[in-house]
Amino acid sequence: MHQSHYTFSVDDALQQALNRAAARQTEPAKPETLTIAEALGGYHPAAEIEIEFERDKSLPRTIAFT
Q1: Residue 65 lies in a domain
Q2: Which mean pLDDT values do the consecutive 10-residue runs of the chain (66 residues) have?
Q3: How far apart are CA 13 and CA 20, in angstroms?
Q4: pTM of the predicted model, to two decimals?
């Protein structure tokens, strides 16, 4: 397998732009979704609520559409 290496000169503005772009790529990505606490601007008691559902086993497993 043959590898080619090229060298070329760049001006200061281009080098600075390349350095800025490289620095941005190493920054952590922003989350695409927010938690409830983040959406409310910090801690909120509502963010700590856990909801559990338990099916009543005495009821049949059928669903009726009307």
Answers
A1: no
A2: 70 84 77 70 65 72 62
A3: 11
A4: 0.29
Sign of CA dihedral 5, 7, 13, 15: positive
Strands (E), the chain: none
> Does 62 reside within a domain?
no
Number of domains in the chain: 1
- For the chain, state the CA radius of gyration: 28
Residue 49 contacts residue 40 (beta carbons within 8 Å): no
Judge whether 37 and 44 are in contact, CB under 8 Å. yes
Residue 64 belongs to a domain? no
Q: Tell me the residue range of the domain where 53 lies.
A: 1-57
Report d(CA 62, CA 66) in Å as an integer.
13
